[in-house]
Amino acid sequence: MKNFWKQLSQPIIALSPMDGVTDAPFRLMTSRYGPPDVHFTEFTNVEGLTRNAMMMLDDFLYSEGERPIVAQIYGSEPESFYKIAIVACELGFDGIDINMGCPAKKVAARGCGAGLIRTPDLAKEIMRQVKRGIEDWSNGRSITELGFKQKMICRIREMNQLRSGKEENPERKIIPMSVKTRIGYEQVTIKDWVQHLLEAEPAVISIHGRTLKQMYTGSADWEAIADAAEIIKKTSTLVLGNGDLNTPEEVVKKIRLSGVHGVLIGRGCMGNPWIFNYKNLLKEILKSPPLQSEASSIEQETISAEERFKVLLEHARAFEEIKGEHRFSAMRKHFGWYCKGMPKAAELRNRMCQTKSSHEVELLIEDYRESVLL
Ligand SMILES: Cc1cc2nc3c(=O)[nH]c(=O)nc-3n(C[C@H](O)[C@H](O)[C@H](O)COP(=O)(O)O)c2cc1C
Questions:
Q1: How far is the CA of 44 from the centre of ligand 1 (A)?
Q2: pLDDT over 80 at 295, yes or no
Q3: What is the DSSP string of 93-127?
Q4: Which of these ranges, 20-34, 73-87, 288-302, 357-371, has the smallest mean pLDDT?
Q5: pLDDT number for residue 318
Q6: Burial of 145 (0-12, 13-18, 19+ CB in 10 A)
Q7: Which residues pair with 158 in a beta bridge?
Q8: Which of 13, 15, 18, 179 to mutate to test the pocket of ligand 1 (most atoms within 8 A of CB)?
Q9: Which of 115, 164, 302, 340 is most deeply buried (CB count within 10 A of its CB)?
């Protein structure tokens, strides 16, 4: 039994999963320029994967430097969760996280993501099936026994080979199961909801301080997270808070307010992998009671335009290498985030959003340097 979560120094500062954002190339940047204590993949649908949707396996691409890395999955069929838990184990993930927080209509209306808040019995069954998959895999169950097409099995082996040099994962260890959720569906019901979740004994419960109904509006309710933390801290499960942590200062403030074991940072790291650089300083500061002078010592330093361009280009090149130039349009959103606040940022962003390759981005940066920065 290896629960890596328990071995991390607290407070844990982790990267929040964001579909379409925190993919393997992005995480390569956070692992180089942060790193956070834990990485999560973007969420992946278990039913699609169970039906051999090969493309979805790309969400499970990662590099060894991202460890500990947790595979996040979503869906509504317990049997599919069972099978994909085995796949995640075979792919060498350090943990499996179940998404019970996504508010998107196409997810929640089908009873997945935050939709599970309304069906606690199904949510608990899903958690049990993930645990059963992890256990069966540790006892020798193979991905070849689950009805997958040969091409899926070959791709899983190929991913293992490319990442670790071995086709099969030899380490049949038990990995931790965790859950990421919201404070309620329409109303704040987190105190009752966590009692349900705790019955299945997850290693961690991460809580985004908004209801499904709120989507991303208003601000995260850290008082509700604090209420949940009080309950969860009476058990061996860890609690991570999440929502609106955009600066190191906010992180310190909200950890003090809520008493959580750690936090997840989402939008605050868009175009800003450096935010995780502050994690050790934050841990140090949180060992002592609040000091008046602490705010200035944890203010994030301005990252120079040159450094931002360097990382932006590195990111774009990694994107091409990992996901292919034909998908480059999915990289463009990052450009605006990296260039935020630079002189003539809007014009630069508009031009960058028309590029089709990292080479074009490189030329554009040179042009910008000459015409604007020099
Ligand atoms: C573009 C985007 C995609 C997201 N995708 C996921 C996801 O795949 N899984 C998940 O658990 N949460 C997802 N989230 C929610 C974030 O992980 C996080 O809970 C939320 O953004 C609040 O935290 P923040 O204020 O630090 O961003 C997503 C959020 C955004 C903005």
A1: 13
A2: no
A3: -SEEEEEE----HHHHTTT-GGGGGG-HHHHHHHH
A4: 288-302
A5: 98
A6: exposed
A7: none
A8: 18
A9: 115
Per-residue pLDDT averaged across 49-66, rounded?
A: 96
Helix (H) or strand (E) holding 362: helix 358-368
Tokens of 23: 């993919």
User: Does the CB atom of residue 45 touch ligand 1 within 6 A?
Assistant: no
Angle among Cα 42, 89, 40 to the nearest 5 degrees reads 25
Mean pLDDT of 100-128: 97
SS3 state of residue 70: strand
pLDDT value of position 371: 87
Read off the pLDDT of residues 312-326 as tens digits, 9 standing for 90 and up: 999 999 999 999 999
What is the Å distance from ligand 1's center to 16 Cα? Answer: 6
Instruction: Please say whether the beta carbons of 49 and 80 come within 8 A.
Output: yes
End-to-end CA distance of the chain: 57
Decide whether any atom of ligand 1 lies within 6 Å of the 36 Cβ.
no
Q: What residues have CB less than 8 Å from 304, skipping those under 6 apart?
A: none
DSSP letters, 282-303, are HHHHTTS---TTHHHHTSPPPP
Give this prediction's pTM: 0.97
What pLDDT does 364 receive?
A: 95
Per-residue pLDDT, 2: 74
Q: Can you give the pLDDT at residue 374?
A: 65
3-class secondary structure, 211: strand
CB of 180 closer than 6 A to ligand 1?
yes
Is the CB of 20 inside a 6 Å radius of any atom of ligand 1? yes
Does the Cβ of 266 fall within 6 Å of ligand 1?
A: yes
Cβ of residue 217 lying under 6 Å from some atom of ligand 1: no
Contact between 248 and 281 (Cβ < 8 Å): yes
CA 122 to chain centre: 23
CA of 266 to the centre of ligand 1 (A): 6
CA distance 136 to 32: 34
Atom of ligand 1 nearest to the CA of 244: 25
